[in-house]
Design brief:
The structure holds 2 protein chains of 2 kinds. Chain A is mainly β. Classes of the chains: A mainly beta, B mainly beta. Chains A and B meet through strand 5, strand 9 and strand 10 of A and strand 5 and strand 10 of B.
């Protein structure tokens, strides 16, 4: 069982609101990722981090931002949510020894 | 360029049938890793298998088996005697040793097992 947690699991908010999706892992992994995924569709990498104070944008352009102040914590923030941000957001971290990607349960965001 | 192709968008079979999900990859690296993940309707991604490029042995885990063939750049996944609980979207993924384990994902295959 992976020790990576995301909150909230589900969120419905109005347009223009600021939101932060939380992601924490207790495995001591340096590498962490945020993916955006519409249900049953391809995963798109939007942000990643290779360690504290390291953040990079992924393949898919996103209006979100991330921070990595602590190894275990990798929050994602939307300053002004829009209906086009409605999606599932998956946080993950990598075991550097095996390359296995561990996923959180996801945060399903709906912007009205 | 790295690429992962899952040509089957959706497969529907009747319970107890065997089913194979195809995965074809492209890479220039000689050292790479291949993965399969399962995503049930609940949405979480479940790790199934990781295989490195130097190990072409087929793997069997219960009703699941994987056929890795470098000659055809394929890493196919077979479920024997399928069950309704196998219904999910299955993703194949590739990472190169020199890419810091960033995964390249296939588009996924939706598997529907009918009772």
């Amino acid at each position: 069982e992976a020790d990576i947690y995301q909150t909230p699991r589900y969120l419905v908010i109005g347009t223009g609101k600021k939101i932060t999706l939380e992601c924490s892992q207790t495995m001591g992994h340096d590498k962490m990722y945020w993916y955006q995924q519409d249900p049953g569709m391809e995963l798109h990498l939007i942000h990643y981090s290779y360690g504290v104070n390291s953040t990079e944008k992924g393949d898919l352009s996103s209006e979100s931002t991330v921070s990595r102040i602590r190894t275990e914590h990798f929050p994602l923030t939307l300053e002004s949510a829009r209906p086009s941000h409605t999606s599932q957001y998956l946080c993950a971290s990598t075991d550097a020894n095996t390359g296995e990607l561990f996923f959180g349960e996801g945060s399903r965001l709906t912007v009205l | 360029a790295q690429k992962v192709t899952q040509a089957q968008t959706e497969i529907s079979v009747v319970e107890k049938e065997d089913v194979t999900l195809d995965c074809v990859y492209e890479t220039r690296d000689t050292t790479y890793y291949l993965f399969w993940y399962k995503q049930p309707p609940s949405g979480e991604l479940v790790f199934l298998i990781r295989r490195n490029s130097f190990d072409e042995q087929n793997e069997i885990s219960g009703r699941y088996s994987w056929n890795f063939q470098k000659s055809t750049s394929s890493f196919n996944f077979t479920i024997t005697a399928s069950q309704v609980v196998d219904s999910a979207v299955y993703f194949c993924a590739l990472s190169e040793a020199n890419s810091n384990y960033q995964l390249i994902w296939g588009a996924g295959t939706k598997l529907i097992i009918k009772p």
